[in-house]
Amino acid sequence: MRGITLNIDKVTGFVGKEQVYAWETKAKASIEALHKRHYATGAGNDFLGWLNLPSSVTEAELADIEHTARLLRTKCEVVVVIGIGGSYLGAKAVLEALNNSFDFLLKERRNPLILYAGHHIGEDYLYELGEVLKGRPFGLINISKSGTTTEPALAFRILKKQLEDAVGREEARQRIVAVTDARKGALRTLADQEGYKTFVIPDDVGGRFSVLTPVGLLPIAVAGISVRDLIAGAADMEKATGPDVPFAENIAAVYAATRNELYRNGKKIEILANFHPKLHYIAEWWKQLYGESEGKEHKGIFPASVDLTTDLHSMGQWIQEGERSVFETVISVEKPDRNVLIPADEANLDGLNFLAGKRIDEVNKMAELGTSLAHVDGGVPNIRITIPEVNAYTIGQLFYFFEKACGISGYLLGVNPFNQPGVEAYKKNMFALLNKPGFEKESEAIKARL
Ligand code: PA5
Question: What pLDDT, on the 0 to 100 scale, is given for residue 43?
Fold first, then answer.
């Protein structure tokens, strides 16, 4: 497998390698607990379906996704993916990483333009989206595991009406796909009533672990990206991080152990850094994965992210000299896809002729090296994840690597990484403030506080 590698050499000035390796027994126990589908406290063991998604997806499932994607691609110039959190970040991460950065400006499109809705409650955004969709053939992929999440439900209500008004209810049915629970939830009921094409999110796969189900695969296929390559990468990583792999060779276990050891030594913030701006949404996906999985019981590393070198001109000062409670995990891309050479310039007013003939990436790589050395000198331990190039296969590897490490890391931290009880608090207040039926008592209580 030519794939991603992990290097923890630059944390050893802060915590010794032996300290990291001291986690071996606990890490092995965590991996076993994941694979045996049982965890000492019993918590979370009903949400482990993601573990063998890559190796268990069937040809029929992939063919169904590709077939539906083809239908949407034929009918639609624009496809709006409706979802929030784990129900949209994975697909968005892949599309941002692999599509042309100026996709929206391309004249000769081979793939529908993918837009997003339901990932917030911004009124201006929804208005502008509605305007831009006018007169364009569009379709909707509505993704919600619970089928009751307010943000996507509101967006779907508005966009479904716009679509039905534009093309009629029958044609709209052909352009709407629902990805949801097999049995429960408002979206399941509506999809069954209307006869939408549906895909199921398995009961035992939580939102933030669902990118390798139709949640991620369908929008990715609509965008013309190979879901088979993505799955192949994830399947190889599934093997490479399996229960029989020795600790030192299991990069998910070593990453999980390293971050827990750093946390134990006061490093409370992990910054995921990239020098490849197209990976911005990989970091957004990663933040949700680790933030929702580990931030509980008043514990957990705070997951943050930066795009470099851009953020060296904003967050760089803080990382270099701010409170020393931070460590950095750099995703390093060995080889960019494209080749841009720096030209010579006769006047050389910018003094950059010493770089003439070099690739832009050579400069970027030296910025990367210079930055990690500076940050290490400044007291920031540095973990490095290297990917040979950015493609569907390596992103599949990366997804599974981070998921597996997250499961192990959550167990090492002593929390249930597969629930998210804290996200209910804002919903309860919001529904009380909006006088949702059933929230009368909460409504009275919250209004008394205002
Ligand atoms: O990881 C999670 O479970 C959450 O982030 C969900 O993905 C998010 O809240 C969306 O939920 P749903 O798919 O039920 O609409």
Answer: 58
pTM of the model: 0.96
- Domain assignment present for residue 436? The answer is no
- pLDDT exceeds 60 at position 41: no
Position 441 in a domain: no
Same domain, 222 and 292: no
Q: How far is the CA of 411 from the centre of ligand 1 (A)?
A: 21
* Ligand 1 atom nearest to CA at 215: 13
The residues assigned a catalytic role are 292, 313, 427
Query: At residue 113, what is the residue type?
Result: L
Check pLDDT > 80 for residue 423: yes
Ligand 1 centroid vs 228 CA: distance in angstroms? 24
Phi, psi torsion values for 15, nearest 5 degrees: -130, 135
- Token readout for 112 is 């529908």
Nearest ligand 1 atom to alpha carbon 152: 15
84 lines ligand 1 (CB under 6 A): yes
270 pLDDT exceeds 90?
Answer: yes
Q: Do residue 128 and residue 204 come from a single domain? A: yes
What is the structure's pLDDT at 70?
98
Q: Which atom from ligand 1 is nearest to the alpha carbon of 149?
A: 15
CA 361–ligand 1 middle distance (angstroms): 37
Q: Are the C-beta atoms of 432 and 439 separated by less than 8 Å? A: yes
The DSSP element (H or E) to which 66 belongs, if any, is helix 59-75
